[in-house]
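Friendly challenge for the regulars: who can give me the structure tokens for this chain first? No prize, just bragging rights.
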Amino acid sequence: MSTGERELAGLAVSLRTPCVFCASVHGRRHVLETRDERSATLLADVGAAALEGERDRAVARLAQALAAPAPAVPVDEAVELRGLGAGDAEIAVVGAVAAMFAWANRLMSMLGEVVD
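First reply, four minutes later:
Bragging rights claimed.
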């Protein structure tokens, strides 16, 4: 899995959780890695369905499904990504990115809040 795809997964998670700071970082890194400004903008403004590449759509959908507050196992999304050529290791990378950034984004969203 390319660094650009990992950053796209991070962006998808950050938009789902939502963490504006992280979305900005992952979106910028995705653009730097892929030279594709359109995909990050489409994902942020319209959603995964608007992405032009089938594999990009599958990566974003799987990452967002895994980042849900109480995710069900997103079998359909993983099967779709496998059908687009992703192997077990690549699918596991999307899962790891989603888990790591869903947790970190939720943690960061609490920073700065006053807790009694």
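The helical segments are 3-16, 20-34, 37-45, 54-66, 75-83, 88-110. The mean pLDDT is 89. Your move, everyone else.
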